[in-house]
Amino acid sequence: MDNVRNPVGNPIAGIDPDEIVDTRPYTNLLSQFITANSRGNPDFTNLPRKWNVCVVGTHDLYEHPHINDLAYMPANRDGRFGFNILVGGFFSPKRCEEAIPLDAWVPAEDVLPLCKSVLEAYRDLGTRGNRQKTRMMWLIDELGVEGFRAEVEKRMPNGKLERASSEDLVNKQWERRDYFGVHPQRQEGLSYIGLHVPVGRLQADDMDELARLADTYGTGELRLTVEQNIIIPNVETSKTEALLQEPFLKNRFSPEPSILMKGLVACTGNQFCGQAIIETKLRALKVTEEVERLVAVPKPIRMHWTGCPNTCGQVQVADIGFMGCLTRGENGKPVEGADVYVGGRIGSDSHIGEIYKKGVRVTELVPLVAEILIKEFGAVPREREENED
């Protein structure tokens, strides 16, 4: 569907002691507009291509603004709260780009009019030919940033769009926090608990059990993160120990995942997706488990898997990414493989990773990943670590 995907905000919005702004009012407003309060909004159901939007509310940039078509970055102007605007971030088989500044600021009350104006400009002017060249950044390239900005500006209710503010509220030196485990909320006496969902795979029984835990220990609310994990908010701090003792948290859904597992993301893969070239989720788990037996890693490493060049697994922003492909086996016949990416980053110093090695057979990934972790990320072979101990 060439439509607007669900607006993304801070997964700990409203409970984060260090948040800049609670993103929920804005993401809810955008969702209601995009779906016409769940009735369907025909004005924006036939865009040139899919379109992503996020509202940033935290220094951690959990929302991944640099890979969204439209991102709202909190900023003040003369004592008024609002947002600077980024546009054009996207991934595709042909091209991947980070979002760029539109040189625009809107007050908080204009979040919706700005979104509507950007969507209208994209809908009305975007190319509808070659689907590899129809994401919004291609239109921005065609018009130029100033030309695209002018098209957005004239669609604003008052025909005006202020230039970007210099009062950026995001702390660019901020060290991204880990949301796994127990953390105090801004509300006294309450905590939230981040749980690891291995490669984002939940069965129906798992969801039932998570709902039970949310009802028993929290307020019946579960929150999802873009890394495919789950947060249970509003748990009385006095009950957190009892929650941690639940059998459900002792096995797969740990609040303390291993250092490589916590950053593991995988798309659906060819088990359920017709476009995927390789199986991703089970293989991602197996490769990571084997690599953990070979090396000790000093810090969390984000490893992403995607089954095809559409890169739903967002391999280009991972420390190490694996994009499914077909390659040649020893007998010369096609076998499952992966193009390996290294060097992607998220946060204020975001960066798109680059190809490290193409066409690696999936059966040969474990030693290659161990090698990359040692050379690029300071990992130590387990044998040496044991000898030093």
Automatic annotation (TrEMBL):
It catalyses: 6 oxidized [2Fe-2S]-[ferredoxin] + NH4(+) + 2 H2O = nitrite + 6 reduced [2Fe-2S]-[ferredoxin] + 8 H(+). One of its GO terms (biological process) is nitrate assimilation. Pathway: Nitrogen metabolism; nitrate reduction (assimilation). The keyword Methyltransferase does not apply. One of its GO terms (molecular function) is heme binding. It is an enzyme of class 1 (oxidoreductase). Its cofactor is [4Fe-4S] cluster; siroheme. Its EC number is 1.7.7.1. InterPro entries: NIR_SIR_4Fe-4S, NiRdtase/SiRdtase_haem-b_fer, Nit/Sulf_reduc_fer-like_dom_sf, NO2/SO3_Rdtase_4Fe4S_dom, NO2/SO3_Rdtase_4Fe4S_sf, NO2/SO3_Rdtase_FeS/sirohaem_BS. Residues 183-246 form the Nitrite/Sulfite reductase ferredoxin-like domain. The keyword Iron applies. Belongs to the nitrite and sulfite reductase 4Fe-4S domain family. This is Ferredoxin--nitrite reductase, chloroplastic.
